[in-house]
């Protein structure tokens, strides 16, 4: 089964960055200081979209690639769990001032999103073979 990169780009990456694009549009059109140009919740949404799509496509592969499938689905589940923790921290930080460092949360979200992009790219390279 072939999985074209253009399909992945259109269905996964573009849909995943919609929250970031929307936030950037709002940030660009509102008075300064009220809206941040990037937020951890946007990166969390991107990561969840990436891994949901990756798990869906990997599940369709033939059983002869069972070990590879198990490894990549396991990594995706681990990263989804990390996004759950980050999202919980974002909720706490939004509701209780001073409990969570926004900069540390954003940095952590960027790092996990980078890992997600890497893992998804690895999976995509295998899906297109």
Give a description of the structure.
- With 129 residues, the protein is an all-alpha fold.
- It contains five helices and no strands.
- It has helices spanning 5-16, 18-29, 40-59, 66-95, 102-127.
- Helix 1 packs antiparallel against helix 3, helix 2 (18-29) packs antiparallel against helix 3 and helix 3 packs parallel to helix 5.
- The radius of gyration is 16 Å and the shape is flat.
What's the average pLDDT? Answer: 87
CA-based shape: flat
Distance between the termini: 9 Å
Give the proportion of residues in helices.
Answer: over 70%
Evaluate the radius of gyration.
16 Å
Encode the helix/strand succession as letters: HHHHH
How is the biggest beta sheet arranged? none
Quick tags:
single chain; 129 residues; flat
């Amino acid at each position: 089964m072939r999985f074209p990169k253009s399909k992945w780009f259109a269905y996964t990456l573009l849909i995943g960055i919609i929250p970031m694009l929307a936030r950037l549009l709002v940030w660009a059109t509102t008075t300064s200081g009220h809206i941040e140009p990037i937020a951890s919740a946007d990166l969390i949404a991107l990561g969840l979209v990436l891994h949901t799509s990756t798990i869906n496509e990997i599940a369709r592969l033939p059983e002869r690639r069972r070990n590879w499938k198990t490894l990549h689905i396991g990594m995706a589940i681990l990263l989804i769990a990390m996004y759950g923790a980050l999202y919980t921290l974002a909720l706490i930080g939004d509701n209780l001032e001073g409990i969570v460092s926004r900069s540390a949360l954003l940095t952590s979200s960027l790092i996990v999103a980078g890992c997600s992009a890497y893992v998804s790219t690895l999976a995509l390279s295998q899906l297109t073979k």
